[in-house]
Fold these 2 entries.
Entry 1:
Amino acid sequence: MAVSAFKPSHLVLTDPSIIPTELTLENFRNGWHVAGLPFWVFFGNSLILAISCIVGNLFACSLTAYALARLNFRARKWYFAIVLVSVMLPIHAVIIPQYIVFSQLDLVNTFIPLVLPKFLATDAFFIFLMVQFIRGIPKELDQAAVVDGAGPFRVFWYVIFPLMRPALVTTTIFTFIWTWNDFFGQLIYLTDSGIWTVPIALNALLDSESNQGAGTLMAMSVVSLIPILLFFAFAQKYLIRGISTTGLK
């Protein structure tokens, strides 16, 4: 992909060589504008969506995990089992009823259908991850806070939440990467070019350029990977630490 990004368009599909015989930056210039908008607009949309989803997952999944790991209430084990089963449910099984609901609420063509589920703790994988981490935190810390007069929420906010940093960082990294690369959900809900994200813009770029779009698509795909590479390079040590400390004990 990186090599093809610097090849002339007529050589992308005809010259399989890893070492290009001709080099050009024309693909980057041609691909910077999609549907009459500069590509940085789509970068901004993807960034807004990714940050919103990160906030939603950190807020909702951490609270849900704390309740399932620490609080005693009726049918707690059954709720946790339902959470685990929902991991196996493919998104294609729920996308149609979800779309109907958001369409009736007149929320299609906004970021809300993509962000709101995150604030409702629908990503069961992160709930399971945090539950396993919280179970490894000594309960004596909770009991000491209760003795000092703290309620369940204060115990969570002042004791559990600060100790969950590795799990929270892991959730942040995966949420960012998955949201940035998501195509199916964003294609379903985002129709106005002004709120397109990077994956939709790349798809539109190929369609608009027809047979000449391969090189342009490769060039802008390379550009679209830069934020993920930088983010992962910065956070990889936290990712490894989070996975190693949130696994089954």
Note: The beta strands are 33-34, 37-38.
Entry 2:
Amino acid sequence: MVSVAPGTPCWADLATPGLDAARRFYPELFGWTGRIDPEPEAGGYTVFLLGGRAVAGAGPPAVPDQVPIWSTYVATDDADLVAGRVERAGGQVVVPPFEVFDRGRMAVFTDPAGAAFSVWQPMAFAGAEVFDVPGAMSWTELVTPDPDGARIFYELVFGWQPEEEPMGQVAYTGWRLGDRLVAGMMPPLGEEFPTDSPAYWTLYFSVADADATAARAAELGGTILVPPRDIPAGRVTALRDPHGALFSLISLTTPTPPPPRPTR
């Protein structure tokens, strides 16, 4: 079974009341196919595949009034231990650790600024099987009005070491785990993200052409929230899907993709 190192983002899924629409929108955008979980209790949870390999998921909202949202999952070998660390570091346990059939154990938390994130303790299902290629998850990023508090919190919870990264005029922080950067952080920017907005995690999917994919998303009923722009790592854009879920795209400037994240 392919696995991702503990402390590394390993999976992302969409909670949306428009599940049927999501099953149409994202495969049209990224070339995915969908595999619907046959378990009645799964509520139609769908694993999206890229070339036959799992890249992301989508399911119904946990509560009726939940806004559509993409969630980031961080790999762990002990979800209960992480739950204790979250509470001691000032976060909240939104959903305590529980088993998802025979696939794994998960839990949902918020950090002290309110950003929601999840953990995944794999059993039969390890998470995403491919990263950093067009159509696959490439990066996860915290947008928060309290970066100083976040630096302390995520180091206590996951052992992430914060370090400043060059990003033009933006105060950008990368989180390092061992010898690799696993996630990033930045303050809210622009009119679309006022400084008093709540903290949130956002997900980047790699694409070959950010401009063309953003235009295609708009054709399919999505919204371009932040038009494509250049950053040192590549060209990025922020979108909302037809039901309002936020996600981002990045076309990387590196001529060859970074090494795949999973290890056997």
Note: Confidence is low (pLDDT under 50) at residues 255-264.
